[in-house]
Each structure stands twice: as structure tokens, then as C-alpha cells.
């Protein structure tokens, strides 16, 4: 019985998803799949390649993208509720990224890809749960000089864009290392 209720709820949620929210979720999923496909095809040596100017290994960056999805969604959900994002600065972001790199330097491909798949699916589901009204809500964002930004902008600039941003950097690092 509980399974039938859950399936019914999922069907209703899919039917009520706004076209904009669904499009955002699909773009996030597309980026995550592209990152997954690239990472899945890497050799062990490529997985360990360091990204120039960044210093992190390719595998650490794949894991980083996966790790950040929940936080990026949480920040967007705050904006969806009309709440400001406070205390998030570039210094905080850089420290978080550095700590993640130290703590996950030996991450395995299996662990990173599993987390990427799980967290990107959860992020896409959370995006699909947003209404157009929520996507349009704006509040101050400390990361952007307290500019009033919409939930949709936050999603596009962070969770949706994140895998694409790192894909370009990973491809560049792999190309440079093969020369």
C-alpha cells in the first residue's frame, strides 16, 4: 500500500512541475551525466591528474561537484523562501574547497561517481519541486555583494553550471597533460 501512495505522489509531483523548473533540472542532469561519462572513461593516471591553476586532482574535483550539490540546492531553497543568504563569502568557499581537497585527496572513482549520481538526482528532484513563483523570488546573497538574486539565478550560476565549469577545466588539464 505504501508503495502505491509513494508512486502516486511521485506522479503528481512530476505532473505539477513547472516547465522552467523541469528545464533547469534537465540541464543539471545533462551536466552531471557529461561529467560522469568523462570521469568513467578516465584511466587511473588521468583520474590523478592535477588541474593547472587549481592544484586539485581530477577525481577530487568530480567528488567536489557531487559534494556541493546539496549545499547549492539548500542556498537556492532559502532564496525560494525569500530568505537571504548570509555569511557565504569567496573566502569561505575557498576554505571549504581546500578542506574538501585535503580530506578527499584519495577519493576513489567509484565513491565519487556514486556520490555524483545520487546527489545530482536529489538536486534535480529538489529543483523540480520548485514553482515558478519560488524560482522568481529574490533575496540578498552575501556571495554576490548582497545583491538581491533570484532562486533561478542561484541555481543556474551554481548547481546547474557547476559540472559544466569543471568539465572544461578537467578537459583542459587532460589535454595539457597529454602533450
Q: How big a fraction of the residues is strand?
A: under 5%
Q: Could you please say which CATH topology applies here?
A: Four Helix Bundle (Hemerythrin (Met), subunit A)
Number of strands: 2
Radius of gyration using CA atoms only: 17 Å
Average pLDDT works out at 91
Question: Would you mind describing this structure in some detail?
Answer:
The chain is mainly alpha-helical. The chain has a single domain (18-177), classed as Four Helix Bundle (Hemerythrin (Met), subunit A) (Up-down Bundle), CATH 1.20.120.450. It contains eight helices and two strands. The chain has helices at 2-16, 19-40, 44-47, 58-80, 90-103, 109-128, 132-136, 151-177; strands at 138-141, 147-150. Strands 1-2 form a two-stranded antiparallel sheet. A hairpin with a 5-residue loop joins β1 (138-141) and β2. α2 (19-40) packs parallel to α8, α4 packs parallel to α6 (109-128) and α4 runs antiparallel to α8 (151-177). The protein is globular, with a radius of gyration of 17 Å.
